[in-house]
Amino acid sequence: MTQAKLLSAALGVEITDLDLRQPLSADQQAELRRLLDEYQVMVFRNQQISVEDQIRVLGIFGKVSDEERQLLARISQELERAHGAAAKRTMASSEKKA
Q1: List of the chain residues with pLDDT < 70
Q2: I need a labelling partner for 35 at 20 to 30 A (CA). Which of 19, 68, 92, 95 fits?
Q3: What's the rounded Cα separation, in Å, for the pair 7 and 94?
Q4: CB within 8 A of 55, min separation 6: which ones?
Q5: Which helix (H) or strand (E) holds 42?
């Protein structure tokens, strides 16, 4: 059974024991569908997953359209660019202090 921690009395649950980079069993998939139905929001913290992993996980809940796939790819590219720019600023700031 998936470990889930209630986030609030109103809605939301944090899933704490799944590595979304790995394929999920049929039981795990059914449990995620049940949790989403019951709590409307699921949080998976600290997951370093690829676009392909995101699409696979989203597929548990229904068909992922080509438009959704393209959107995920664009978002991923933007996040990578932003992360790279932030890393460069941090490095530049560290070099100035040294």
Answers
A1: 1, 87, 91-92, 94-98
A2: 68
A3: 37
A4: 64, 68, 69, 72
A5: strand 42-43
